[in-house]
Each structure stands twice: as structure tokens, then as C-alpha cells.
Amino acid sequence: MDIRNLEAFIVLAETLNYHKASEKLYLSQPALTKKIHGLEGILGASLFRRGPSGTRLTDFGQKTLENARKFLTHYEQFKSQVQSDSKKEIVRHLYIGSCFPTHNYLQIERQLAGKKGNIVLALMTGLSVEQQISLLNVGMLHVAVVPLVAVTQLEPKKTFTEKLVYIFRKRSQLVSKFRAENSKSEHKNFLINSSGKKEVIDLNDCLNVFPVYTGDNMNLLLKTNDIMLIMEMITKNGTYACVPKRMIAAIPDYYMNLLEIIETDKKIDLGVVWGKSIDDDLVDDAESFSALVANL
């Protein structure tokens, strides 16, 4: 039996007018008549009686109307449940632009999956702030973690503050030099090279690719978001780096025993911003992610 024939029967039974029923169903009257006759043929009895006073339901038609309504209600419930179950099986992908390593977001992903089912955080790391904002605007990112100073057109959903730390090789001469110079300086957390020039750090750069400096003259050697490469260069080449404090959680224990981590008073205010269009089924995920990353 075609469900659409039952729907047509119910509309005609409620209006008792072929013209009005046809308009509601966006059908021609002959097409509606064909559906009703087809249903009557399947049921083996007449549903309507047409006479001088108009269209009326037969006794059989009246009973069938009640059953048809019940049947369609159950059918809609069944269809809704099937659609809901099928959505639960679909893996949702939340595209995120950020500076922090995958290690940090695995914690969030596990929490989201535990609460909301099949969700994958698709990370795009190492992007500049400008690239992240651009991708948000064209819909290729859903969420991004960026410095507040860079947010002009997008309103942050959450804000938080990130401290920066220096990472040195343990027992490096640079550690004592760092502490000595900063204890004397009015402006803390600067290193001074042999020429007396203070190191200048673009704090925003420390959020996407992390600066690695040479130990001898404090020149910028490279920028990278590969934490393992940074660790190798610090422990084997005597360099040092300036990174967000939460990066420490991504450093393997093996390296932690070889490092000296110095906290600074440098801070960066960050915002979690969303793209202009996020699918409805991802809004809850984006809200949960925003809250979790701000409190990680």
C-alpha cells in the first residue's frame, strides 16, 4: 500500500471537498480521484459517497479514517526513530584550527565522544592566524583558537589566558644567564645576547609555530609546531624555545628528565571563535569543545 494514498484519503476525509483536498496535496482532482479509487480497490470497499449534498464518508470510511490516522502516527514515529538511529551511526567531523598539539585535543575528543557519540576532531595545526580566520570565513574550519588581538570580525565564544614558558636543556648555561639577567631587569623574561640586545618575541607567533633559538647568540633558528623536533634540538643542539605552558603536557617523559622549564610572566589572551556557518548537528559539539578547550 502506498502511504501517499492514505495521506490523500485523510486530507479528503477532513475536507470532504475534492477541490480543497487537491490544493492541499498539490494534486489535480483526477490524480486525487485515482488515489482514492486505488485505495478503495485494495480495501475492497467504498470510502466516500458523493451526492447532491456533497462528499460524505461511508461508515466503512469513517472507521478506516480512525485506523489510518493511528497507522500514520505509528509510521511517523517509526520513520523518526529510524532517522535518529541512522544519525547516531554517522561520524561527525569538527574541523578545528589551532596551535596546540594533538596530545591536548585527544583528551577533549575522548570527553566529547563519551558524551556525544561518534565525533572526530579534525585538527589543522601550524596555520597562521590569518589562515585560520580565512578558512573560518569560507567554511573550511568550524572552530579556531586564536589570539584575541587577531579577532576583529568574529566574536569569541570563549576566552582564556595562556602563559608562556622557556624550555632549556638541563644544566644549560643559558638557564643561569636567563635568571641573572631577569633578576636585574625591570622588564622580566628577556634574554640579552652578547651585543646587549634584548630578544624580541612576537607572542602571537608562539601560538602557531613555536620559535627555536640558538643557544650562542639567541638568533631565531626556526619556527615549527613539531614538538619532537623541538625536543631533539634542545637536548642535542643546545637551543631553547618559548612555547605555551600547556605544550608541556605533550612532551614525552624521556625528554622531561633532560629539560629545564622556566615560567615567565608572558601571557596571551586567546579566543575560541566559530565559522559563520556550522551545521545544526555540530553546534552542540562546537559548544562543548569551546568550553573544554578553555578549561583544559
From TrEMBL:
SUPFAM superfamilies: Winged helix' DNA-binding domain. Gene3D superfamilies: Winged helix-like DNA-binding domain superfamily/Winged helix DNA-binding domain (1.10.10.10). This is LysR family transcriptional regulator. The lineage of its organism: Bacteria, Pseudomonadati, Pseudomonadota, Gammaproteobacteria, Enterobacterales. Transmembrane segments: none annotated. The keyword DNA damage does not apply. Belongs to the LysR transcriptional regulatory family. PROSITE patterns: HTH_LYSR. Signal peptide: none annotated. PANTHER family: HCA OPERON TRANSCRIPTIONAL ACTIVATOR HCAR, TRANSCRIPTIONAL DUAL REGULATOR HCAR-RELATED. Keywords: DNA-binding, Transcription, Transcription regulation. It comes from Xenorhabdus budapestensis. Residues 1-58 form the HTH lysR-type domain. InterPro entries: LysR_HTH_N (IPR000847), WH-like_DNA-bd_sf (IPR036388), WH_DNA-bd_sf (IPR036390).
